[in-house]
Amino acid sequence: MRTLFLSFIILFIMPVSAQEKIEMLFSTPESVGAHIDMSDLTRDPGLTVYRPARPNGIAVIMCPGGGYSHQACMHEGHDMAQWFNALGVTYAVLKYRIPEGDFSRPLSDAAQAVRTVRSHAAEWGIDPSKIGIMGASAGGHLASMLSTHYPDTLSRPDFQVLLYPVVTMDSCFTHMGSRNNLLGKEASKEQVLKFSNELQVTADTPQAFIALSSDDRTVHPANSINYYMALISRGVPAAMHIYPTGGHGWGFRDRFPYKREWTGELEKWLREQVL
Hints:
Layout: E1 8-16, E2 19-26, E3 46-51, E4 59-63, H1 81-86, E5 90-95, H2 104-119, H3 121-124, E6 131-136, H4 138-149, E7 159-163, H5 176-183, H6 189-194, E8 207-213, H7 222-233, E9 238-243, H8 259-274
Parallel strand pairs: 4-5, 4-6, 6-7, 7-8, 8-9
Antiparallel strand pairs: 1-2, 2-3, 3-5
């Protein structure tokens, strides 16, 4: 895999109520010397970090969903910042590159995000052993992909939080749009198996919190269920919460009828399992 992201550029720092917001751009061969554009999903990956007034040592890096073709960066990203900061959690939203058939792009971006946050742990009041990756839908595939394919110890997340995630590339249960965008329409059998993350779980895979709706018609619940079973079968601590209704893509939206439940369960899990 190509070595990317040797540096980052701090774009600006600005206080947002009790938060400190930091945006940074990862440097890649494509972006060096180019115009900085945080909206370019094909070339310029970046990280927006929201720092709480009183950090509790936990950091969460969020990967928004979007089928690996775009990113739902508000309700599956920035909208959660104030809530996490109120808990004392340092929260970051990853703007990863769209793969266009090259899985290494988003995977490298997620790995670099963890390395970057870990490198700032002392400065930002973070425990370097309490850095997690979070993702929704296709972003959940990216989060579980990093959790099972992390390239080195510095990029290994300490926990994973998955909302209605795509996990498998198996055509029986996968979201085909996500699979085609990640691996291409002519994906080999070896690629399908390799990036079906439920098949890549080991005893070293980070502990997980998973939440989904049983009536999800976009990403089959089997993605979450099979991943959960793979985790517990290998002795990896995992919690899964399945809500009867809500469909797909609810993120932090108030209209999801179980928003209070999933956020409350996640808060409890972070407090009891991570802190």
